[in-house]
Structures are given as C-alpha cells and as structure tokens.
Amino acid sequence: MSTPTQPNRRALLRGVSWTAPAAAVVIATPALASSPPPATAGGEYGLFVTTGQNGSQLGYNGNDNTGTIRPTSPTAYFSAVKAGNNPESDINWNDASQCRTNSSLFRNGEGSFTPVANSASGVDGSYVTPSGFWWSVPTTAAYTGSGYVAGSTATLETGATFTTEMEVLIPAGTNALYTAENIKINGQTWTKSTSGRRTTINRSSATYLAFQALAGNWSITAPTITTLSDGSVKVTGTITFTTTATRAASTVTQRGTIYYGQTEIMPATIDVYPGYGWTSFSLTSYVQSATITYTGQPAGMASSTTLTNQLLTTSTVYPQAC
What is the residue-wise DSSP string for 25-62? Predict the structure, then answer.
C-alpha cells in the first residue's frame, strides 16, 4: 500500500483559517475563523473527531452514546455554536482541564459535529462517538438552522478522501514495547499496513440526517514505533478513508426535515491496551480532498465547493483524573 502524500502543517492551518469554527459556508469570500461568515446563501459542512476509553479499550470506537444532552433542533444547535457551546460527543471529559471525570468511560469529541445528532437512529440532542464529516443542502440563512431550500440537493462526490494521523505515547517501562506492538485495528493486531471497507448506514429514525455513513475503503500504514530518549515509546500511523458510494447514495435531498448528510471516516475500532500505562492517545484528521455539488441552490451560490487539505481537527485524551 502506498503512503499518501502529506501536506505540510502550514497548508492545513491555512485551510482552517478560511473556515468558521463550527461549519463553513460556501460563499464567494470566506471569513476568518475568528469571525463566522455572514448569514447568506450557502452550504454548511464540518469535520469532527473523537477519542477516549471504555473499560479496557483505549483509542477509537464510534458506538458510545452521550444521551440527550445537546440542542434538539437545528436552530438551537447553531445558537449554541454562536454562544461558544459547540455540541460535541464528550462523555465524562473536561475540555477546560483536559482530564477525565470517570476512569472507566470517557470520550473527547472535537470539531464541528453534525447538527442535532450524528446517528441514523439517534435521538435528537444526542451524539455517538465516531469521527466524521457532514454537509448540508443549500440554505438562504446559513448558521441559523433555517432557510434550507425545499427540494435542493447536496452530493458528496465519490472519491472524497480523509486523512487521520494517529499518535500513541507510552511511558517508559518493561512493558512499553508490548503495548506498542499489540495495538489492534478492527480486532486485528497492527503490525503492517492493512485495509478494509465500511458500508453505508442509511437513515432510520434520525429527524434531520439523511444517512450516517457512506461506503468506502480505509487503509492504515504500518506502525512506526520509536523509543524516545527518556525510554518512552511513540507509535504513529496514517489512516486514509476514501468514499466509494455512488452519487445517488451520497446525495442529500431536502424533503421534510432532511437537511444533512454525513460519512464516518475511520476503521470501526482502534484498541490500545491501557493496563501497563499510557501517556496520551491522539487523532488528527483533515479533509484531504472532497467536492460537494448542489442543485436548487439560490441565485449567486456556486454549484459546487471543493475542499483540499482543510478542517484540521485534533482530539487527544490523557489519563489524568480531574
């Protein structure tokens, strides 16, 4: 398997600087991250990343549910974002102090989460804990949760590619290399480059979401294991996910309350054994390339938008208790 060409961090950050903190709007002149774009015609999108631990599983798993603790309508969602209270998939995690409030279960979600819920069967106001990308149909009142154009469409074109850098830090000790050499990807010990597939998860009872995940292929490089000068161990790898779903399968059509599409961008699980100690687990994701096309868009709105090396988002967890 070939390793994808990595953009430099400056380019990634430059892409982020053209993106609002919660959702970017497709407009002719994008605004800086410190100031959301004006409420004008456009399509919204965002990237989110989650890490954490559940029992003996440290790393990544998209199945835990926060419960109904977030805004339950698009209008309330965007009001929360504007107030600085971004809805996330946090469970027993304190963002301000970067610490856990429960040693058995905690998740740290970062980035821009799908408005209202990111699960096909989820209750409005609740989130599950995957990493993913979401986008909306055109709206005449971006960032308000209203103005979505009746009958319009938004398609994530086939071949959208997302890259995630994984880093695990393990403290020095006689079992540090055991932990490093026994990380599991989808239940299989990660010793070499490997790959797999994800299937489409269609909408069931979700109020605003057309689908939760799109069919695609993921791959991960062979692990790089480095013993640092203090005896601690660092493990890194690069995960790439590329959508293979057809245009028909990846098109959101505005009907009733359906406004958003979403795709998950990771293998199903990453398991790091925490029993011998760990220092941090981190995922840094970005959109390597993606094109969203629109129909029924308002006058003056572009028919498509293309993202390249944008929306850099990092989630890191530590073993510190609050």
Answer: E--SSPPPTTSPPPS-SB-EEEEEEEEEEETTEEEEET
